[in-house]
Write a structure and sequence with these properties.
Length: about 270
Amino acid sequence: MASLVSPGLSITIIDDSQYISSGVGTVPFVLMATAQDKTFQGSSAAYTSKANAGQLLAVTSQRDLITSFGYPSFQLSSAGTPLNGYETNEYGLMAAYSAMGVCNKMFVIRADIDLAQLEGTAVRPIGLPANGLYWLDTATTAWGIYEWNTVTQSFTNRVPTIITDTTQVTVIANIPTPLQSVGSIGSYAVVVSDATNAITMPILFYKGPDNNWVQIGSTAWQNDWVTVAGTASFAGPSPLTTWLHCMRQARQLTGKSLSQLVRQTPPSCWD
């Protein structure tokens, strides 16, 4: 170290250059996460797409890196100060960019993680649906419920009540069923949601004369429908009147002989 003899000037030079220490023939590798579908100068940063996630890319310059992955993104506060340690900061991309300043080749893989999904939002975040799922459009579905109209001699389309509110559904015999308070006698309903999410397909119901819902196709539903209706009417006494009449005769015939019973029993009571 030089000794300063006053008056005089002493100058010290410190080399703060950074170098990657590596063996001969080795190439650095960076595994990182960034936001998905980023852009660079108005164009898509190709290697931030989901299709290219997990793909090994060899970059040879800083421009090559930012063209493929965009500029490193770091969150700032409302006052404009950096938020160090923020979960969406792209530290891996920044490390790769810095390393490319002192080397001429690097291998990079972007993980299949979208850091933008960690951003706060007023909209409920949802994931992508799994392959093979069906979407039910309750607003435009016709449901295909038809009843035969004896007056017009044609089928009439019946529009059911669509039940998506789980508070209007109860479970009866392991079947999500509309509450009795829902709908009126003779109406139809379709249950598409329940509290346990056990429904894999819509369930159709019919409200019978007893004001109870029955599943269409079940035995209870078949019992609620008249398959054969007669056209003739009976003008005699009602079954209740005939039964009461027979009961009175039975009390009067107590203690009679067999011949007396036959002669005095009315024909309406012989069946």
